[in-house]
Design goal:
Length: 241
């Protein structure tokens, strides 16, 4: 892919991943003798247009210093916050905005993102001169649930209605935006007490345009224990292709 720009990526990694039911934060679980965080960060750094990665870590993180990432020359560590958005903002404040006018934000638990999808995202955003996200169209019938008091125990609900799936997308990462615009959008949203679930939601609140760039379904987020085996399968498949 041709570009004179170089990009920096922020990886918020201050969470603990309670749904993994593990004895360490999920980003430090191993696949093929390498942590999820290492797989993710090295996948980003191996892209020819990404020159630095900023990792936002919890202040009480006891694992990073022992990892192979700790002394990597192209990795910058910053303190993360209580929520993802606070970690991303901490990373943004560490970006040299003149050197890196665009910034990628990528989930620590998405080690299977492909270079081809990153290429596509960068190309489309630069061509349209505004940011966007990788995403996959919703394929399944979507239901909105409503919890009834008598069945609220466990992961069950009752159906309130069927949601039309046309034009619905699963939001993935990386998400790519102009550094100044994303910083301002997040700061304004936090000042106004708005809920920010990802970078795109901050951009939406700022009434700025955002692209949906179709991506591979292999770009999964490791959230539950059985996701580890699927991520390992995809990583091995990609390594052998």
């Amino acid at each position: 892919m041709e570009s004179t720009l170089k990009f920096i990526a922020i990886v918020p990694a201050a969470g603990v991943g309670k749904r993994m039911q593990a004895n360490c934060p999920k980003q430090y679980l191993s696949i093929n003798n390498e942590t999820i965080l290492s797989h993710t960060v090295m996948r980003l750094l191996s892209h020819p247009l990404i020159s630095k990665v900023i990792i936002a870590l919890g202040t009480d993180d006891q694992y990073f210093a022992e990892s192979q990432l700790a002394h990597h020359k192209d990795i910058i560590r910053v303190n993360g916050g209580t929520e993802r958005v606070n970690s991303v903002l901490s990373g943004l404040h560490a970006v040299d905005k003149k050197k890196y006018p665009w910034v990628l934000v990528h989930d620590a638990a998405r080690p299977c993102v492909s270079h081809a999808d990153i290429d596509k995202l960068i190309h489309q955003c630069l061509m349209n001169d505004h940011g966007g996200i990788l995403a996959t169209p919703v394929r399944d019938t979507m239901k909105r649930g409503i919890y009834a008091e008598d069945i609220a125990k466990g992961d069950i609900s009752t159906i309130e209605c069927t949601v039309e799936r046309e034009q619905l997308w699963h939001a993935l990462t990386p998400q790519l935006y102009k550094t100044d615009e994303l910083t301002t959008a997040i700061e304004q949203a936090l000042t106004n007490g708005l809920k920010i679930t990802d970078e795109a939601s901050a951009i939406e609140q700022a009434n700025l345009p955002s692209l949906l760039v179709s991506a591979s379904s292999e770009n999964i987020k490791i959230t539950h224990p059985n996701d580890l085996a699927l991520a390992e399968f995809y990583l091995n498949k990609q390594a052998n292709s």
